[in-house]
């Protein structure tokens, strides 16, 4: 298996070796829905302020689907919200920025904090009524909402919360983070999970093990929030065959101060960018 995390130095060297683009370039990507708001903001800023000849087409079809696209050659890169798996053979993972998987309930729910164990028990079907969790103020059946198996977020949740046990049959598996948060907004009995960039009005974001899901708690070292994670970009092979325009973009997005500002504003947490 060739999946690995590239060192920053390797990406930088590739970027320095790339000549200036002679014409317009379109870079094709797919994958993570969780990363979509941040990636789209980075794409727009790069085209507008760094290289107007480079354009991006990104299909948010889920991180796992995106990796398959890279493997079969239909995408030049993928966004991914989980760490590499054996099924990702023939790809290279690059740490891009930091994110947190937030646990959300409807504002009508009085709950303020939830533990990893309680979350595990809800999504495994061991806790099915809000009366079993103190502080919710509800006595109704819990409606857990999550991601489908196309999403890397599904695997992250599986590993970080469910101990690789399958979710219960009562979990409503949806195809996008936006659908998850909308389901929680509309259902007083729902609980769901989504990345930082998807935390919007109409949601109540819970503390997890007493720590808030906010950028200030998701520092590079240590990672204070229990469900902190890296968002990755995934390239084919060892990355050396990727278009030079893509390598230059990755180097800019990971290192520049401007890109760090864009990441933070769009809902991510810069991990490598200049201050």
Counting structural domains, the number is 2
What radius of gyration results from the CA coordinates? 19 Å
Extended strand count: 11
| Proportion of strand residues | 15-25%
Q: What is the molecular shape? A: globular
Q: In the CATH classification, which architecture of the largest domain applies?
A: 3-Layer(aba) Sandwich
- The CATH topology annotation of the largest domain reads as D-Maltodextrin-Binding Protein, domain 2
Largest sheet: 9 strands, mixed
Order of helices and strands: HEHEHEEEHEHEHEEEEHH
Write the layout of secondary structure elements.
Elements: H1 8-17, E1 25-31, H2 36-49, E2 54-59, H3 63-72, E3 77-80, E4 91-105, E5 113-114, H4 116-123, E6 143-147, H5 152-160, E7 172-174, H6 177-186, E8 190-195, E9 204-205, E10 207-208, E11 228-236, H7 244-255, H8 257-266
Helix pairs in contact: 1-7, 2-8, 7-8
Provide structural commentary:
The chain has 275 residues and is an alpha/beta fold. The protein folds into 2 domains: 8-99 and 228-266, 3-Layer(aba) Sandwich (D-Maltodextrin-Binding Protein, domain 2); 100-217, Periplasmic binding protein-like II (D-Maltodextrin-Binding Protein, domain 2). It contains 8 helices and 11 strands. The strands form 2 sheets. Strands 1, 2, 3, 4, 6, 7, 8, 9 and 11 form a 9-stranded mixed beta sheet that branches. A two-stranded parallel ribbon has the order 5-10. Strand 6, helix 5 (152-160) and strand 7 (172-174) form a beta-alpha-beta unit. Helix 1 (8-17) crosses helix 7 (244-255) and helix 7 crosses helix 8 (257-266). It is globular, with a radius of gyration of 19 Å.
